[in-house]
Design a protein that fits this description.
Elements lengths: L8 H23 L2 H8 L3 H5 L5 H20 L8 H12 L4 H14 L3 H27 L9 H20 L7 H15 L3
Helix pairs in contact: 1-2, 1-4, 1-6, 4-6, 4-7, 5-9, 6-7, 6-8, 7-8
Length: 196
């Protein structure tokens, strides 16, 4: 990626992904240009195309980076957690996401209806997340932490649908549920999946 003096490649990549997220949120997918994202990040457009084949790939990588940061804020790296604890932490986050945190993915989902390339890249990325979650659930079942009669693929799809739906609800500024009630509900839901 076009190096910026005194900045490491990882720092340059972070700047690029942050700039991309800001521009996509501000201008929307169709209105955002690679040259504007490059200018915002302090790199050249050529530097972006050296790492991303398309604007769609850049958007999906910006979404991935944002998601990883959000997950790390809920469950910091190195924190030991079993599958039920992880599902509870992620479930609690569904009820408390702020609108700005979900705006980028909502924009991507809506644009994917009109842009076949973005739909293809986004579907592949969400499919990988869903498969990873299904594998995590299956591992929890093998370890005896989750009920063995729960189909991992169906459970992963349920979690994905719940997550995407929560983003749409947040974008509508609907009244929030009581955080304590939401936590109790999530704990009860996850308890239904744990092995007895």
């Amino acid at each position: 990626m076009g190096r910026i003096a005194g900045v490491s490649p990882d720092q340059t990549r972070e700047r690029l992904l942050d700039a991309a997220a800001r521009i996509f949120e501000l201008r929307g997918y169709e209105g955002a240009t690679v040259s504007e994202i490059a200018r915002e990040a302090g790199v050249t457009s050529g530097a972006i195309y050296a790492h991303y084949a398309s604007k769609a790939e850049l958007l999906v990588d910006a979404l991935r980076a944002h998601s990883e940061r959000a997950t790390a804020s809920v469950l910091p790296p190195g924190t030991p957690a079993d599958v039920p604890t992880l599902l509870s932490a992620l479930g609690r986050r569904l009820g408390t996401r702020d609108r700005e945190a979900t705006a980028l993915l909502v924009e991507a989902l809506l644009t994917a209806r009109r842009d076949a390339e973005l739909a293809h890249v986004l579907t592949a990325a969400l499919g990988r997340r869903e498969r990873n979650l299904a594998e995590l659930i299956a591992a929890g079942q093998r370890a005896g932490r989750l009920a063995g009669d729960m189909p991992p693929d169906a459970a992963a799809r349920f979690v994905l649908m719940l997550s995407l739906g929560s983003m749409l609800v947040r974008s509508l500024d609907m009244q929030e549920t009581d955080p304590a009630e939401w936590s109790r509900f999530i704990d009860r839901l996850v308890d239904g999946f744990t092995a007895t």
